[in-house]
From TrEMBL:
It comes from the Eukaryota. SUPFAM superfamilies: Fibrinogen C-terminal domain-like. One of its GO terms (cellular component) is extracellular space. Residues 12-102 form the Fibrinogen C-terminal domain. InterPro entries: Fibrinogen-like_C, Fibrinogen_a/b/g_C_1, Fibrinogen_a/b/g_C_dom, Fibrinogen_C-term_domain. This is Fibrinogen C-terminal domain-containing protein. Pfam families: Fibrinogen_C. It comes from Patella caerulea.
Length: 118
């Protein structure tokens, strides 16, 4: 994630998995392996109340949240069942003049996100 040319964070997780369709593609991620010395770096994927961990995938026509997060955040994602929906919205609109947008708290906007299994 990049905030500007001088401030960036790298995130590596020990593993990840997605459940099958019957389990709504529930997201699971392992331990954070990165040592981000930058104080602005936070693990927005596993942020306490806004975690994507163990959350089902939500879409406009299949929201797993009582807060209708896909509509509010203008995207599909593993939203928390919380009024703020998420700390990381990597599927948000790319060019948005107002919130919501692609984001990673706190205020990191340029994103490259890869999930893979060796």
């Amino acid at each position: 994630m990049m905030k500007n040319r001088e401030s960036f964070c790298l995130y590596y997780y020990s593993n990840f998995s997605l459940d099958n369709e019957a389990n709504n593609y529930t997201f699971r991620v392992g331990n954070l392996l990165s040592d981000n010395s930058n104080v602005d770096c936070t693990d927005a994927i596993k942020t306490d109340e806004l975690t994507a961990q163990n959350r089902p995938f939500s879409t406009f026509d299949h929201s797993a949240s009582q807060y209708d997060c896909p509509k509010r955040m203008q995207s599909s994602w593993w939203f928390a069942d919380h009024p703020n929906c998420t700390a990381a919205n990597l599927n948000g609109p790319i060019e948005s003049t107002t919130s919501p947008e692609i984001s990673w708290q706190p205020n990191y906007l340029i994103v490259q996100f890869a999930l893979y299994e060796p």
